[in-house]
Amino acid sequence: MLKFTLAIVGVILGWVMVVPAFELPDEQAHLGTVSYLVDTGTMPSYEKQDLTREMAESQKLLGIFRDGLGNNLYTYHPEHHVDYVSGLIGLYEPEIKVLNNPLDRDTYVGSEAAKYPPLYYRFTSLYMSMVNGSDILTRLYVSRLGGLDIALLMAITVWNIGYLIFKKKIYANTLTFMVMLQPMMSFVTAGVNSDNLHNLWFTLIIYFCLKIVGGGLKLRDIILIGITLALDISTKPQGFIALPIIALALIISIVRFKEWKMLSWTMIAGAVALLLTRNQLMTYMGLMNVSNVHGATFIEYLHFSANKLVAQNIVWYWGVFKWLGVVLPPIYWRVANRAVLLSVIGIVVYWWKVLKKKKVVADPYSIFFVIVASIAYALTIFWYDWQHMKINGYSLGIQARYFFPTIAAHMTILLTGIISLGWNGWSRKWLRRVLILLFLWLQIGGIWRIITIYYPGFSLPELVSQASQYKPIFAKGNWWYIWAAAYIGSLLYLLKSSLFPGTVAKE
């Protein structure tokens, strides 16, 4: 399992190096928070400016500085990229490095840093602190490398979910492959963004909930859920969405195993948790039911959201890059969405088998839980967006990646549905292998899309030259052959382990 998950990290490392500076979702805002914390020892607030002149001028030189409407030279402009020159040093790279001086780093010219709870930023600050005397590009990429720790823990957690549900290592490998190599997930995981730590904590909560659903109430698991929930709330306010999902797991477990004695202890633990977080919870609940200042109608919102879901989110789920200006070529997301439709049919077959008391690939209680948990998280995000429209007059702009805290549940459902279409061991084996090949194809399509939209070089030397510009020293020149070898080698190992497990993870 460790070798497999380390190979996953090798793949994410390729994305870390390939994606240009500040081209990952909201990366400049999250890095700004880390920088402010490292430089001042405090978190940014709405009362003080937090955008340094170094950060602002660097963004202007790179073309990513946003105007008052949140747009920059890249937004919805897939053709735009920085001007490349011959060699390994970008045209404006010396100017960016010159900005690494006390005056430009200590002068604040605006507000842009993310205002979220501090846990993720304190973690990432450990890495930035090691190179805080370096230019902003080096600080950015070292901070990205720090996120590989989160990627490794995420992969390990997903692997354990797969093994817990399917009871076979090969299915644990397959689920981890699907989650972490999903191109949009790889893209998001490579960046400096507190979403990544939130995704990890929420996935851990799902894992502990599944342990309760599958094995009954145990005090150890309840305590671990409480600790993980506290860590998640200290990372993102969305952590509170876990409360009804945890309650669902407890109800399923109590009903399934008739553990009425544990119910009282669980209620006591829940009451203590609510008491400790009452202030934050009241604030969160207040945001979930606001006054309709702009007179928006719920029917109009439903129509708007349904249109966006069909026209945008089912495409963006598989990959949206370059400041929302580029998606995967249509063949990729069309094939992926047809696989989802096949999986829906497979889930119907799965429940038919359950009703007929036939053998199924996974525990029905666990599959029921991941389905309802996925729906509950999505509905909560949409409900919050409805509150945002009521008070502000416009939608928050939901992106498909907002649902990634439950991506392990999504892929569990997809895997279960596809495998359930098999009528014997041989057919299930090949359905699983086709699924692996599909996600390998999506992964390669995703990273190739990134390479071709940012680096228009026609030869390998040109590509290396362009990919080296506006990068730290360890992402220039011959270093690229090391990172490319690590990415390709990791993919090959994952492919071999998933398609031909041998004695390590039998079908």
Give a brief rundown of this model.
The protein is mostly helical and about 500 residues long. It is about 65% helix and about 0% strand. It is globular and about 70 Å long.
Question: What does this protein structure show overall?
Answer:
- Helix 1 packs parallel to helix 8 (169-181) and helix 7 (136-166) runs antiparallel to helix 8 (169-181).
- A hairpin with a 4-residue loop joins strand 3 and strand 4 (326-327).
- The model has no long low-confidence stretch (mean pLDDT 91).
- The chain has 21 helices and four strands.
- 67% of the residues lie in helices and 2% in strands.
- The chain is globular and about 70 Å long.
- The chain is mainly alpha-helical.
- Strands 1-2 form a two-stranded antiparallel ribbon. Strands 3-4 form a two-stranded antiparallel ribbon.
- Among the domains are: 194-284, no CATH class; 298-453, no CATH class.
Primary descriptors:
single chain; about 500 residues; mainly alpha; two-stranded antiparallel ribbon; two-stranded antiparallel sheet; about 65% helix; about 0% strand
Q: Which strand order do you get reading across the main beta sheet? A: 1-2
Profile the largest sheet.
2 strands, antiparallel
Q: Provide the low-confidence segments as ranges.
A: none
Which percent bin holds the helix content?
55-70%
User: What Rg is obtained from the alpha carbons, in whole angstroms?
Assistant: 23 Å
Residue share in β-strands: under 5%
Distance between the termini: 15 Å
Average pLDDT, all residues: 91
Morphology: globular
- Number of E-type strands: 4
* Helical stretch tally: 21
What's the SSE pattern? Answer: HHEHHHEHHHHHHHHHHEEHHHHHH
- Secondary-structure-based class equals mainly alpha
